[in-house]
Amino acid sequence: MIKSIEVSLEPATSADPNTYAPANPGAFAVAAAATTPNVVNDVETFYRSGWLELVIGNKTYLLEAPLGKFPPKTQGVIDSSCTSNSATVGITEYRKMNRAGRPYFTDPALSLMSNQNFAVNLRWPAVVALPSGFNARVGVTLDGVTFRAAQ
Question: Does 134 reside within a domain?
Fold first, then answer.
């Protein structure tokens, strides 16, 4: 039984194909802000675009947009801090963001029978580049209960 659906995004620090290097909290010095990956903008761009489609068998059971409606239960919201060691050097800021909130509950719960074909598709009408230009990892969690025959 599928009771809730979550979509998570983990930004990276590499644009090389088929590589993933996790991004640390978005850190930048004011003078270098334009060249440093902006994790916050990557996350916001991802969650404001696209839609999720859940297909069980040959029937679409869920079609919902934007992806921000599917926040992960285990993520926080924005964490931020600023530091400065003098009036002439500037400010360094550290921040990381992810969506948070109530998970997307399927009510009533959706049932997947044994050996049932299903697919979760994330779709966009066109390519949406992340502002940092770097890769990211996307995950979908179907949270629920497994029923098995008694033995």
Answer: yes
- The answer to whether residue 149 sits within a structural domain is no
pTM for the model stands at: 0.75
Whether 9 is in a domain gets the answer: yes
pLDDT digits (tens, 9 = 90+) for 36-48: 457 778 888 899 9
* Cβ–Cβ under 8 Å, residues 9 and 129: no
Q: How many structural domains compose the chain?
A: 1
Residue 58 lies in a domain: yes
* Angstrom distance (rounded) from CA 93 to CA 82: 4
Structural domain range at position 90: 2-144
Report d(CA 75, CA 108) in Å as an integer.
Answer: 25
Mean pLDDT for the chain overall: 80
pLDDT digits (tens, 9 = 90+) for 40-85: 788 888 999 899 999 999 999 999 999 999 988 876 666 666 666 6
**92 SS3 class:** strand
In the block, tokens 């770097």 appear at 134
Residue-wise over 23-36: b if at least 16 C-beta within 10 A, else e? beebbbeeeeeeee
